[in-house]
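Justification of computing resources. Each target in the renewal requires a structure prediction run like the one illustrated here; the chain below, 358 residues long, is used simply to show the kind of job we budget for.
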Amino acid sequence: MKCFFRKLSILVVSFSLISTNVIFATTTTQPEQNLISKNVKSATTTTQPEQKLKSKGFKEVTSIEWNEATSKTDALPKNKTKDGLDISKGKTIIQNNGNPIKTNMLSKKDGNELFAVTTDIKNGISYKTYYFANTESIDMNDVLKKIDDASETISPESASLLASTPVGTGSLVHIFNYSNYAIVSGVKRVISTLTENIEFTRKSDNTMISTTADTAKVGSIWDITATSQLAIVYSPLNIASLSTNLNVNWSNENLLSYSPKVTSGTVSIGLAGILPTFNYAFPSGPFNIIDRSSTANKYGDWLFTSKLYPKVFNTKPAVRVTNTSGNLALSFKHTITIQNGPSFSSGAMTVYVPDRNK
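Resulting structure tokens:
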């Protein structure tokens, strides 16, 4: 069985587009509950000044559809325009003039739509950025400004993540950006943003792995860390909780271990099983942790509940996974609860990473 290469590190990264400073609320005046609604279909949208794309080298393409691999055996599909132009690679912005782009990426949408994708290659690494929002249309000038900002600067957290991770030829960086809209006093506005940094690191591609049939197969072992940042944009509100689910419930995959398993204090992460334990730590900060994971059901699941109702949550759970056939598959989902405000969901997203493909 032939693998793409012996050592592969793949990042699925989402850059934060707002301040990462944590603000703790002592006394906060809460908005009236009846002035905030998730129903954004008939909202009045604030008129934005025209914003021209400043970044050089991006080719803008209008497309109504964007697709990704949808199974463990799928190859990465080529996305093309109506005239046959391959837009899966190269320095390109794919958008649909503020309207949703049809996509197969979300197995459960929960109101979210894809509005733009950018592709780029830097130093041999392929970058893809996805812009999602829970609304029927957006002002593309806002998205273009975010693309400009992202192409010119990298947030300190993202820069640190990339600098500390060995990335080699063939690596991929996927950038996910969620904007959560609601109606405030009749005006549609962004209430919060959710960012997701998922790092896939293949620790081995030739380990003998036990299967449910009491036999052993040669397979791969992956450590997957999920760095999430939830940030409040509409300042009168605060975060109540964030749930994270990492699911690998496929027949050729197994969950060896997951972390964290503590409830407060400094969170020590330890992924064990077959290979040496992978350890790191992050501060629990303004939240408690409720572990709802299940090795038998192949998922890590955590509820981070607020202690001080902050404006920003930063979390970083992890799982160790084995795979004996085809692409590595990971499904992930987040649910956000806002104090005295609406709840949001990222929808269920599945990522397929080339691994044991023939």
